[in-house]
Structures are given as C-alpha cells and as structure tokens.
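FORM 7B: Structural annotation worksheet

SECTION A. Query
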Amino acid sequence: MFRSRKGGLDALLDRPRQPWWQRLLASPWRTLAKALYRLRIQTAKRSRQAITVVCISDTHNSQPKVPNGDLLIHAGDLSQSGSVEEVQQQLDWLKSLPHPHKVFIAGNHDMAFESDDKTKLDWDGLVYLQDSSTSIKCPGGRILNIYGSPWTRQHGNWAFQYPAHGDFWSRKLPLDVDILITHMPPRFHLDIDGLGDESLLRELWRTRPALHVFGHLHGGYGKDLIVYDDFEVQYTMAFRGQGVLLAIVRMGYHLLSSALRSRPVNGTWLVNASAVGGLRDDVRRTPIELSI
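SECTION B. Predicted structure
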C-alpha cells in the first residue's frame, strides 16, 4: 500500500532551515565552520566545451518551470505516493521538456520502480539509471559518463532503502564517473547538519566527479563546491566534533591563504535540487543551473 502522509522522521528531514541565531545557539562550532566554508571563494575549472546542466529533484508531483539546457537531471522522488499513475504523469512531463539529454533516477517515494508495476511505466526518450551508467555525447564531441543510484538510508517503508548502519556506498561508484546522481546526499554537505551519508562522501573523495546531484533532504536545497584539500578535511573534522578548535583555526588559515592566491581549482559541484520543501511541501524552489 502506498503512503501519502508524512511520519515524524519525514517531517524532521523536510523541516525548514532555522534562523542563523538559533543555529548558532544550538551548535556554535558547527555554525562557525559552516560560515567559514561559505566564505571560501573558489572557482571550478571549466572545460573548453562546457555544457549547461539543469538539476531538479523531489518534485513530488509538482511540475516546476524548467529552463532549457544541454542536460536535464532529475534526482528522484518524482512522485508523492509512488503509484503508477503519479509516476507516469511525471514521466510524461519530463518527456515533454526540450532538453536533448534527460537522465533521471527514482527516489524512496517512487515505489512503482521497485515493484512489478515498473513494467507498466513508459519513459521512452528518457534515460533511467538504477545502479547503472550511461554516456552522453555533448556539443563539440565531449563525452560525459553518468552514474545513477536511487538508494537512501532506511526510514519507514519506502523504496530503495539500505540499513541505517554500515558502509553501503563503499566501492560502488565507477572511477570514470563525470556526473553522479544519487537520491541520498553526502554527509556534511547540503544535508541538514550531517544527516547525509559519510560513506558516500568517501566515495566522492575516491572518484571525484565534476558534478554530484541529489535531493531527499529538502532543507538542504542549494549548491556548493567541494575541493579535495586540507580545508575540506578540517571542515569535516569540525562537524564530527574532532579537535574542533584546531580545525576552525586551520580553516581560517586556509581561508586567508586562498584569498591571497585565488585561482581556478579542480573540485566537485554539489547540488541539492529539491524542488519542494517546508513541513507541508508548500515551498517551491527553482531548478538549479550550472556549467561544467
């Protein structure tokens, strides 16, 4: 049976952002670490054959206005209850959009994709990824490898869930991935104060794609750039509560140093593209565009 009402944990995951002063009082060190992280000005290196990627996720039956681009990505939770009718309506909407490449994954709400009803769905013209890869040829002949996976940590009786404890993502991602699409966020990045998955974060360090698109935790909406250096290590340590004061000091040092020698860097764009939010999913967000 499909569920449509939110349980207590769903409401927790979808809760809106607290005002800054509430976050500061509740967790001063984490709030300071996050403030330093946001101050870091980094520019990702761009390919000479850069393409425009449009990212959406967690539409939950809504159909936002989507800007044009070279590649459209939907990172799961197209529907609310996961019925064939709801999912197909969303697939038909995606098919109507003009983007030359359209790639999507399921989310925990898209239960039809984890049942025998999957055979009733028609996604002709779209690319569906479920622990699988695809490659697209972009203008100028550039090839991008895309990997997608729908899994999230267990809560409730939804689809595509793994045990709450363990190292689920270890060695799951291909080394040649350019764009990663998961429904689960990596830990400490656009994930509501550490509710993401740390093994997924370790996989980002191992594979280092150009772009990672996700959703699931609606309150984490936005984009960020992760750079694989000591600043990132200290940020993670601060959020874990390990040597917090020293980590904050080192973050500040790296921040000052990078300001004096700012230059394009290799990193991964992180995008939480959740289209809805708020306790009643009554907040609507715009798709996120970026060039890679």
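SECTION C. Observations
The chain has a mean pLDDT of 90. The radius of gyration is 19 Å.

SECTION D. Sign-off
Analyst initials: ____
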